[in-house]
């Protein structure tokens, strides 16, 4: 039963993302979700639909998962990131920008494991002004938070999170933002703030981290990325548009 | 069992700005100097691919590894202090160059008023201007006495500036290099502030306007305005940093060594004199004792205070009784300002850390405080530091924090908003102090430093007043919507504010209210020097590094003198 539902939601999710299933997504739903489409060779099309810009990286592509073991968890994360940073007339949203992969990769590494953070006990809740006080590492907070989002979808709407309408998803995300959901070892508000930051980090970090696919995040914002110098342009009274450059594209 | 090494003339704890300055001066004078540095070797060659906002600005690549050591924090004494588990409000440095590697480069001289703040305030406004809980004190030294050392630091660093600040203290020399480029954004501020009757000038910058060779023979290159300064190292060697100036100057003497990956855990002392330091090389796990004739603490405000406390040197401050000097007068800075939203689009992504213009009309006692319920103020600047896309998402008030509306507004305003901000001065308060934490320990089993800090009524009044002035300026600049910073409430250690922590090891003319004398020589231990912004008796209305550099040059002179003659320098 549950499996059936999951399958339906998978299909619906793919439909919503406007991506056809096929050989391409053999490795999982997810290749499709970010528009990982070899056909257009990574170039932007006229109607603004873009591929992941990674056609030349078919081997060893960032479009695989290092952290999330469960497709549904990853799909919930993907939908939540898209609500936080949606596709619009300015350009792609979190999913097409590869943000879910960015977060997945970060959770598998130093960020998810809090390697540079002080994680000795004892642990106490503390005041908001005292910041991160959870005994949990970020990877544990994310996984719990995603599962709680799914639980909220079930209890509020009797549906999978990924089957909800946009405004229903927003209602749940807002409940996290306002700290109205119970979590263990961390507050919902804290998880929301981590998630929101991670979405912006994924949308605007150098594409070598797996997000900001095709530098589309930077293009929307008119940030030119890695440029050696502006000494000849900074006097300009006009706004200067510069083709962006990434560190990964600059060997 | 700790291994005892051969004795040296001078050991410094840390190799950032103050350690580097002391090392260069002492080594040039023929003394054998060793710096014990917990971080790693690094330099310009490490920064060729530094334009990576995520790695450097968000994951704190160049900063202290908090898994080994942090501080604990609470707002008030009746709360439980808890560890600062992630970097936030301020960014602790580590590695060669320390915070001097990833600073912006604003290089100021504190005002003559700052050094005699208690005397001037009482004379002009009476003894009761602020309540008795504000522990205002003079620094024991005047601006004029410190002037030669300001000059020396500025000439080492090649500071670019224009000498047009009518409120600045008297200078013996002009800035060594001319000001940076005056960009259209800066011109807008210049026109608005001039029209309002203020006196704008170019912010004194350690991102140099031209290549410069300093008196030590070290060359600093010209800034390329690439927009990656604060939190980053400079790939051009164009942002003056210890590792391209004083550290190589010290190394070239043949009298200097930096020992990396080595964390000092104790200052050793016997019979009222320091005998050396004990440290752990965290790569080998070995423990060492480095004996020295002179021990110098150069490991930032926090760690300098902590090392004195864990080594049981001096009396710790007790806010109940007011007794003790070690840990008192911890100050920070407050950040009044305003943001304006414009129709026109600006090249906000271009810039340099210290590219800016400033007015000092609301700094120090440059304006009358007779009818105001605070003293001091702050330098008020526009800076064009290079807005980076993860961090810079300005939206007008009442915009949601996420979703479609947020996305649109943050993208639209990324290149259509400008901010001006003040470095608001911070006055010492009885309840803001540093001590040792009773519960939490670092990776070596040593207690963490505990910070108790909150904003005061003085801070709140100053913040409100200057935010209003900032709003008037941004309106005058033609913003279609101008928004002053919201009033401050409790200090929050989470969002980044400023790495301008001061106090705890304050300097002064009297051992009753200070930890070190005006040569930064410890009152109780004549061969121990403590150097840094911890020496500030309060925090002024500018970024601190210029004044820290001046104090470090003075301490270096004191250390050389002490090495020859011994005894107290006062």
UniProtKB/TrEMBL annotation, chain A:
Q: Which domain of life is it from?
A: Bacteria
PROSITE patterns according to UniProt: TAT (PS51318)
The cross-references to InterPro entries, in alphabetical order and at most eight, read: Gluconate_2DH_su3, TAT_signal, TAT_signal_bac_arc
Q: Where is this region: Disordered?
A: 42-64
Q: What is the name of the protein in this document?
A: Gluconate 2-dehydrogenase subunit 3 family protein
The organism is Bhargavaea changchunensis
UniProtKB/TrEMBL annotation, chain B:
User: Per UniProt, what is one Pfam family of this protein?
Assistant: GMC_oxred_C
Glucose-methanol-choline oxidoreductase C-terminal domain residues are: 428-552
**Keyword Flavoprotein (UniProt):** yes
- Sorted alphabetically, which keywords does the UniProt record give? FAD, Flavoprotein, Oxidoreductase
Gene3D superfamilies membership: FAD/NAD(P)-binding domain
Where the record annotates domain Glucose-methanol-choline oxidoreductase N-terminal, the positions are: 218-329
Q: According to its UniProt record, which protein family does this protein belong to?
A: Belongs to the GMC oxidoreductase family.
Q: What is this protein called?
A: GMC family oxidoreductase
What organism is recorded for this protein? Bhargavaea changchunensis
- Recite the lineage of the species: Bacteria, Bacillati, Bacillota, Bacilli, Bacillales
């Amino acid at each position: 039963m549950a499996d059936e539902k999951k399958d339906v939601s998978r299909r619906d999710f793919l439909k919503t993302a406007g991506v056809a299933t096929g050989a391409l997504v053999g490795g999982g739903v997810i290749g499709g979700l970010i528009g990982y489409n070899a056909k257009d060779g990574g170039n932007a099309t006229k109607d603004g639909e873009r591929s992941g810009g990674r056609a030349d990286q078919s081997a060893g592509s960032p479009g695989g998962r290092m952290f999330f073991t469960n497709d549904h968890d990853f799909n919930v994360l993907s939908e939540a990131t898209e609500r936080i940073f949606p596709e619009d007339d300015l350009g792609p949203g979190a999913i097409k920008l590869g943000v879910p992969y960015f977060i997945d990769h970060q959770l598998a590494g130093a960020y998810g494991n809090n390697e540079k953070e002080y994680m000795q006990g004892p642990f106490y809740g503390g005041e908001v002004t005292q910041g991160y006080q959870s005994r949990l590492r970020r990877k544990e907070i994310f996984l719990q938070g995603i599962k709680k989002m799914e639980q909220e979808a079930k209890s509020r709407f009797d549906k999978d999170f990924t089957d909800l309408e946009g405004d229903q998803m927003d209602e749940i995300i807002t409940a996290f933002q306002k700290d109205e959901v119970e979590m263990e070892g961390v507050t919902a508000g804290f998880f929301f703030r981590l998630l929101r930051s991670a979405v912006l980090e994924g949308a605007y970090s150098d594409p070598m981290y797996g997000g900001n696919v095709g530098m589309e995040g930077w293009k929307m914002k008119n940030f030119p990325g890695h440029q050696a110098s502006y000494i000849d342009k900074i006097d300009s009274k006009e706004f200067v548009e510069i083709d962006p450059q990434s560190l990964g594209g600059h060997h | 069992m700790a291994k005892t090494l051969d004795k040296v003339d001078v050991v410094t704890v840390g190799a950032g700005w103050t350690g580097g300055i002391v090392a260069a001066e002492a080594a040039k004078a023929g003394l054998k100097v060793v710096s014990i540095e917990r971080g790693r070797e690094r330099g310009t060659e490490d920064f060729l691919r530094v334009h990576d906002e995520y790695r450097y600005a968000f994951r704190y690549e160049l900063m202290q590894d908090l898994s080994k050591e942090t501080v604990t924090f609470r707002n008030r004494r009746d709360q439980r202090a808890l560890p600062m588990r992630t970097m936030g409000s301020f960014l602790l440095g580590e590695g060669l160059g320390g915070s001097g590697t990833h600073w912006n480069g604003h290089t100021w001289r504190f005002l003559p008023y700052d050094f005699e703040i208690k005397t001037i305030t009482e004379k002009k406004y009476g003894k009761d201007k602020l309540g008795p809980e504000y522990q205002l004190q003079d620094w024991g030294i005047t601006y004029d006495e410190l002037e030669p050392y300001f000059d020396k630091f500025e000439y080492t660093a090649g500071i670019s500036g224009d000498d047009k600040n009518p409120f600045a203290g008297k200078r013996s020399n002009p800035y060594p290099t001319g000001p940076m480029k005056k960009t259209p954004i800066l011109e807008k501020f210049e026109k608005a502030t001039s029209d309002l009757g203020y006196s704008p000038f170019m912010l004194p910058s350690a991102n140099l306007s031209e290549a410069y060779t300093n008196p030590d023979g070290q060359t600093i290159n010209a800034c390329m305005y690439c927009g990656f300064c604060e939190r980053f190292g400079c790939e051009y060697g164009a942002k003056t940093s210890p590792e391209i100036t004083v550290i190589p100057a010290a190394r070239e003497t043949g009298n200097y060594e930096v020992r990396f990956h080595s964390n000092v855990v104790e200052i050793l002392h016997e019979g009222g004199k320091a005998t050396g330091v004990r440290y752990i090389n965290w790569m080998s796990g070995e423990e060492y004792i480095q004996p020295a004739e002179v021990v110098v603490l150069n490991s930032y405000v926090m760690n300098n205070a902590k090392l004195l406390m864990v080594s049981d040197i001096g009396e710790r401050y007790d806010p109940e009784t007011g007794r003790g000097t070690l840990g008192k007068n911890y100050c920070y800075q407050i950040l009044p300002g305003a943001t304006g939203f414009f129709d026109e689009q600006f090249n906000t992504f271009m810039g340099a850390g210290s590219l800016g213009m400033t007015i000092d009309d609301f700094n120090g006692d440059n304006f009358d405080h007779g009818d105001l319920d605070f003293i001091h103020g702050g330098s008020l600047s526009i800076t064009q530091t290079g807005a980076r896309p993860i961090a810079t998402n300005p939206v007008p008030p009442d915009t949601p924090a996420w979703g479609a509306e947020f996305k649109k507004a943050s993208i639209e305003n990324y290149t259509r908003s400008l901010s001006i901000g003040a470095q608001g001065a911070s006055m010492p308060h009885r309840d803001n102090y540093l001590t040792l934490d009773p519960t939490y320990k670092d990776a070596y089993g040593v207690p963490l430093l505990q910070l108790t800090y909150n904003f005061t009524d003085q801070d709140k009044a100053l913040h409100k007043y200057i935010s209003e002035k900032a709003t008037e300026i941004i309106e005058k600049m033609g913003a279609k919507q101008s928004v002053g910073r919201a009033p401050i409430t409790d200090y929050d250690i989470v969002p980044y504010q400023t790495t301008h922590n001061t106090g705890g090891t304050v300097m002064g003319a009297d051992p009753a209210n200070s930890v070190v004398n005006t040569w930064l020589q410890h009152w109780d231990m004549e061969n121990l020097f403590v150097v840094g912004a911890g020496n500030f008796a309060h925090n002024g209305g500018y970024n601190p590094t210029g004044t820290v550099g001046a104090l470090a040059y003075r301490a270096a002179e004191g250390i050389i003198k002490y090495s020859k003659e011994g005894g107290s320098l006062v």
